[in-house]
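Progress report, Aim 2. The chain analyzed during this reporting quarter is listed below.
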Amino acid sequence: MTSVTIHKAKTDLSKLIARVEAGEEITIMRRDKPVARLVASEVKPKVKRVGGSHPELASIPDDFFFKPLDEDELKLWEGGE
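Predicted structure tokens for the chain:
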């Protein structure tokens, strides 16, 4: 277990938090007395997200982007009514 002074904890808080997230416990000292302890609140395994894992939401027909517009859609794109 690592011990740091209050001044060091204030100066390097983000670095200390990264060490705590990696599993280390850190004691914060005032002079020679421990006054606080930094520990991870909850260890969560990191889950790698994979795009397109839901087949109904991820499937797009091959001709979706390249099929021609029908006459009504074409008129709307050209500013007609």
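Residues 13-21 form the longest helix (9 residues). The mean pLDDT is 86. These observations will guide the mutagenesis work planned for the next reporting period.
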